[in-house]
Structures
1.
Amino acid sequence: MKQSIVKIENLSHRYSRDWAIRDINFEIDQTGILGMLGSNGAGKSTTMNILCGVLNQTEGNVYIDGIDIRQQPEEAKKLLGFLPQNAPLYLELTVNEYLTYCAEIRNIDKRNIARAVAEVMEKCGLTHFANRLLRNLSGGYRQRVGIAQAIIHKPKLVVLDEPTNGLDPNQILEVRKLIKEIAEERAVIFSTHILSEVQAICRDIRMIENGRMVFADTMDAFNNYIMPDTMLVFMDNPPPTEELAAIPGITGVDPLNDRSIRLRFNTSPDISKLIITMSVQKGWELKEITLEKGSLDEVFAQLSNKTSNR
Ligand SMILES: Nc1ncnc2c1ncn2[C@@H]1O[C@H](COP(=O)(O)OP(=O)(O)OP(=O)(O)O)[C@@H](O)[C@H]1O
């Protein structure tokens, strides 16, 4: 089996008195996108900054492709590219000048710099803007430049902290497409507090809350986890509660008022189709049916409880 590109063991950090992260463990495959999800202040940036060698951890170990980042920071950093939350762009430089500068500080051989810059501009769709000042680029293109600087030295691991923050919907789609392409040949860690971002492009998910890892699995497993298990129905002529409770798969019936009822179920959400059919057959006059997916806050709360109960 190939060695993991990232291995984090019992990672904990405190800035002063309180722990910002506590006992984080995970490993990452050599390619693909891992989503790091957590609400504001959960501990994502702390974890990323330690992972990228910007911050020294209080406890625990981080290995990049088997290299301990604390023991051999220079070697480990050669293998990774980082786009921090606020990318350090020099707005008075052109795209070409800025990426050339980034190539130099990444110690790319002088003879290869022009080619590396041309290649990365091509990959990130920046060639047309080579001579444009960064200050005159849109937010989406600035973000592309931020991503370009993170991959110019062809690292095995790219860490992107909230890369789609502040972009409009079209720009978000374009940046997502670029990230997917980048992840075909390397590992990408994508940090965000927006669940739908992770659902859109990540194969695996790690969820941090209050400094602790509360979920670590595939995106498919996560989607199953947050599958809805209640629906809200609105009927002009609802049947007696017992009749609804007798439907196979319905595990609870909570009338909210004369016409609104919350139904709990333990089968697939497709049970809503059965309710619609029955309503037509039996004249319940169903007007509205809504599956109630847990909000991210609820999912966090549920997962946190699960973890602390373990
Ligand atoms: N330099 C610092 N000094 C003291 N405490 C800090 C510092 N940076 C972060 N913290 C605290 O550590 C905890 C984790 O913060 P962190 O920035 O890692 O979270 P985050 O998940 O990245 O949130 P956000 O998305 O808002 O950046 C928070 O309680 C935060 O207040």
2.
Amino acid sequence: MRQSAQKTGSLRMGWAEVLTTARMRAIEAAAMASGAVSGAELMERAGAAVAGAIRLRWPRPGRALVLCGPGNNGGDGYVVARHLAQAGWRLRVLGMDNTPGPDAALMKQRWAAIGAIAPLTLDQLRRKPADLCVDAIFGTGLTRAPKGEIAAILAHLGQDRATELVAVDCPSGLCLDSGGFLGRPREAATDELRARLTVAFDSPKPGHLLERGPDCCGELVIADIGLRRWREAAVAPMIGVAPSFDIPDSRRPAHGTAALDKARAGGGHKFTHGHALVLAGGFGHGGAARLAARAALRAGAGLVTLGPPRAALIEHSGPPDALMRRGVDDADALAALLADARISAVVLGPGCGVERAAALLDPLLAAERPCVLDADAVTALAARGPGGLHPACVLTPHQGEFARVFPDLAAKLAETSPHGPFYSRIDAAREAAARSGATLLLKGPDTVIAAPDGQLRIHSAFDVPWLATAGAGDVLSGIIAGLLARGLAPLDAAATGALLHAAAARRFGPGLIADDLPDMLPAVLRDLGA
Ligand SMILES: NC(=O)C1=CN([C@@H]2O[C@H](COP(=O)(O)OP(=O)(O)OC[C@H]3O[C@@H](n4cnc5c(N)ncnc54)[C@H](OP(=O)(O)O)[C@@H]3O)[C@@H](O)[C@H]2O)[C@@H](O)CC1
Ligand SMILES: Nc1ncnc2c1ncn2[C@@H]1O[C@H](COP(=O)(O)OP(=O)(O)O)[C@@H](O)[C@H]1O
Ligand SMILES: [K+]
């Protein structure tokens, strides 16, 4: 029996709630309606948090330029200016001559009592150099692509790499529900705003974690402005949880990975920890399945069997010796094997060949066994259509495979529009999960995982670009299957799998090849206290 599987430690990786902008507004409104806190107080806290984060990183006061937009994001900017001025910074504040809402108007007035406000124009922006520029132009209230003078200001800021940029809530122009820039192509551009630091409030928004967001936000700080009570009281489910995408945070509750503890609790024998079957392809194509099988073992499945056609068994005679091999020639052979109820998870797709994957899909789906459908199995689904899967199927397409199975959703995802919010990876994954009836993990540095009932997880891992290496996806399938075999629910298995996968890559560092990933898992699990 596997020693690690006996342990009942707790995984302490924290998961943060992610709020859409609409939900964030609703929570703020509920807090203000309760009478316990006013909008002005929230704005004071928000601005003070931004100023505090700046002072922590740039302790020596310098010259700051604060750009204040027409709404409450601009209101935060006036608060930041006041706090920095009090801390000895030399300030230039550029603002608009509109009449903002009452809270922002109050903050503007408080700033005006101690300093000047020049017009927010490109000419003023260029007039004097600054060490630091605070972008408080647009936040969650952005509804359309910036135009005219403000667009020119943002383009200038995007090209200016000399001044440190600090974004209030987000770099202006970023759609916080999708991570795209309104009115601009979805792919990376050279003149996007790239903040060194972004301070957002209460919880991350999807746009901080998806698409262009992580790159353009720079360091992301989530400031507590005292809304927790109203967030937790919200009736409608949150959009999901995302990991703190760098460092495990032992201070936060471990709801995201608690299921892993449950799955491993209680000792038991090897079958207690599940039996994963990894179906392999024909002779000469077995590497992908072997990677998945090794990963399933390392993820803690009690047993793992590799199932190539009998003629290809010889290819798999090397290590690991812990791996069992069993010839699976065709659909009948698979149906017979799955009569063994102890097989608790199956991987179909990596290196399988589309024809074989298509043939094995029917008996696999008929057995209603938790399974991971990856690579060639996803392509096989494209031909037959994604309907008729079940929630214990975890579909793991990358963007290209997703487009094969859900071409209409992929087309929407590529669209750009002058109005927000953009159709997001969250929308696409949710729609695909609902349509297929399966749990869907849309791969990428910003992995999105959706269950058919609408539950959602985001796993953002932009700090490990070396994970984009051949075979990494096969390892991910194996990890998820290992966790499914151990009894994790599909959404938990997929989300925890993505998390362990990236953590293994992070721990290994650059130079990683997919073969290195499974063997990093024990150290990762140990780090997490599992
Ligand atoms: N609620 C609270 O108490 C708290 C809120 N907080 C802060 O408030 C921020 C949200 O504030 P917000 O809702 O006022 O939106 P914001 O991002 O300032 O922009 C909206 C303004 O921009 C305008 N506008 C939009 N698009 C435009 C365009 N393309 N070109 C030109 N104008 C455009 C839009 O005008 P309209 O669409 O009505 O024409 C409106 O005037 C949030 O990110 C956080 O920083 C914190 O203080 C915590 C407490
Ligand atoms: N730039 C990136 N940063 C972090 N992770 C990435 C990046 N690109 C891809 N990934 C992850 O690497 C894996 C690649 O899987 P996949 O595209 O199926 O590759 P393969 O087919 O070669 O195994 C996925 O888990 C994906 O989320
Ligand atoms: K901003």
